[in-house]
Amino acid sequence: MAVEIKVPALGESVTEATVAKWLVKVGDAVAVDQPLCELETDKVTVEVNASVAGSIADLAVAEGATIQVGAVLCHIEAGAGGAAAAPKPAAAAPPPKPAAPTPAAAPTPAGANLAASGPAARKLAEETGIVASAIQPTGKDGRATKEDVLAALASVPAPSAPAAARPAAPSGPRPRAEREERVRMTRLRRTIANRLKEAQNTAAMLTTFNEVDMTNVMALRERLKEDFEKKHGARLGFMSFFVKACIAGLKELPSVNAEIEGDELVYKNYYDIGVAVGTPQGLVVPVLRDADALDFAGIEKGIGELGRKARDGKLSIADLTGGTFTISNGGVYGSLMSTPILNPPQSGILGMHKIQQRPMVVGGEIKARPMMYLAMSYDHRIIDGREAVLFLVRVKECIEDPERLLLGV
Question: Does the annotation mark 384 as catalytic?
Fold first, then answer.
């Protein structure tokens, strides 16, 4: 009986997907839960697995096709095929009969005796450069005749003509079309492009900058990172400090954690922090739920798990929806300064950057300090410049004096 394999439900508001890659072909035997294909949605790539064991009867859609949720992807002939039967051992072949001895070949003449040949044969051989071993003598005692030398010359293959000269490379550059590669945009890349352009076209986007001295956070992390990892099984990074600092700022300035919906402002009294992650497929922003209820270990473990799922292509729709504020760390790629773009419908995003030693005036003296530029992009329709600046200053204060995060002041 043929069983239909359909596009599964892919999450709220997701109605279609693209068949990114088939992992099987017609006639293949498959087991239960074996991946059959990869579907690419606006947000994630998901695998569709076999619901029964059998063999692939047909593939209803081709790679690259767009298909609706609930549509048929392929049919599996249940119970057919299955595991391939082990080949029967071949019957033992009878031992080979001893081969009859091959008669020895008659010895071939070693070549002409040019020294004893006539003068005409010797002269012709010398002029043409023919070797004695190539001449089959017909004269007495292995002597070659002039006719033998001529016959040997006739049997020597003519030297091959020189290869035709390759056409010279064109002096000018090749046409640009020959040096271009065209690749169809993935659904995820198209969605990223559309959303970022939507943010620029819709929001009154502005960016404010500041810088933060990382000395105290780095010292605290260096002093406690080994104990932290032994106790919690997670690496202590900088992101947990910034998540905590952002939540402190969001609580003091609620408009940064709000969004516009129609003609209403929606203030979020929860803190789902999106953490931008770069993957080979593109930028994704998985969400750390209720981050305000997590301690440093919970934040580090949550971010680590979301990062692994993003790199492995295992993020679900639920992992990517509902964030209220986003943090993007371009510093891991070496970025010293950038202007992050909003992640709609959110109204704010914090951009972290590379830590770099710079000369700073501290207590009236110039000292080298590990500094990081911070960028806060915001929607000016809902967040005033004063609020954006105060938010960034609050983040700066918490990072430069991390004890504030522990005491909640």
Answer: yes
